[in-house]
Amino acid sequence: MVNRLVLEVSLQQKTVDGATKLNWQTLNVSDIPVSDFGEDFPALKDVLPGAGQVGLELGNGKIQVKYDGNIDISQLVKAIANNDTFPIPPLNLNNPKLTYSKEGDETQYSFTSSEGFTIEYGRNNSKDYGTYNFNVNGIPVGKIIDWIGTQFNVSNIGEFIDKDLIVNIEVAQDGQFIYFNGNVDISALVKAVIGNDTLSLPPLNMEDPQFKHFTKGNQTQYSFTSDNIEIEYIRNNQDKTYEFRTKNIPVGDLTKWLNTELGINSIDQFIDGGFNLELTPDNKSINFTGNVNVSELIKAIAKDENLLIPSLNLENPIFTYSKEDGETQYSFRAGELTIGYIKDNKGYKFIVEKIPVDNITDWLNELGLTSIKDFISGDVNIEVTPDKKSISVDGDVDISALVKAIAGNSELLIPSLNLKDPEIAYSTTDGKTQYSFTADNLIVKYIKKDDKTYEFKAEGIPVGKLTQWIEDELNINNIGRFITGNCQCQSGFQ
Predict the structure, then answer these.
(1) Are 379 and 404 in contact (CB under 8 A)?
(2) What is the SS3 assignment for 387?
């Protein structure tokens, strides 16, 4: 039985074709006991505390219900959605107002109160598909701190997020979203999620980040975005492996971390632009966006400005590095070109794969391999160690012509020799500069000495390759009739 019923009707006067008509705009009913609430709203009747009073306003295509008292809106939304497991936080409001509207397949519920934040639940009841979205706008973190901790799987989440931060929440089919209004230390938060506070992550503080969380199959993904900066943490819930990725991070923001990771100072001198970062338990990868002076960066890593390596600049290279058993490997890749630097207790190795010979002409000239473009074309591979510098060539190379070019003497008394896919190595020791050319079991060496003398040696050369030269130089005709197999030859000027 209703003890008091207040009814208010709002009318609008219109003149149509000279006649005056009155149309009702709104209808207000107040002080209705919840126990007497109409059967049109069973979800409200079942969830609202029975001792309270409600008011009802109808008009302008909407229905508004006002409730006097405190209510957990999340329970009401779950009842409306008919889903007890709906992943939304508990939200208690004092004297809330519910606005309900429906247009076609779209149904919208909105809750407001004196607390200052708004809760919305929308649903599409199309026969072809059913979708929903749940939004909370302008709520302090402190009011839903436990729910946020559940989303991150971190029990002490309050240590990493300021409880006074204002957030907006969105829950939909494709995940849970939290929009922070303020600064969040993403690195500390991810370390807490991983459960490893010693993990080597760069310091990443984001202003007003958007957080998205969802689980699909065995993977749980956390993503943070702010402006064009993106951070992702992906965890495999089965084997506990993970990936940590960043996109569009300015190099200047992380110079100190990169210096610590790579063991060099002023890394920003060698990099023009930003970078994307990917970390796994076994590997670290940086995709630089812009130009990188790889040679100078490697010299800085090696702490040797005089390291005899070619000058190489790459656009947007992918850089990876790893440490295992006392060995550190650094790798830069751009297209088909790969540059590697390996360092251990014994020394180092610098490797370049598939680099056009035209790109390293100056470096080859430094090694005395002058005019090499006259004898080699296409891509080559490079290897530099403390003991030697070498390049591997695809195709036939006229070694004798190349040696004559190195010696600067076209009349050099050496046999004509072509080698297929040779390795050309350069080394210096004890006042000697040695060039060696190796292919299969054939070895050709040219040694220059500081006193201007030289030696030319060839080992494992089939006699057939040298027959004409031997006949001409030694004046022995038809030598091939008397000698078979391989031979060694040596010439020089002492």
Answers:
(1) no
(2) coil
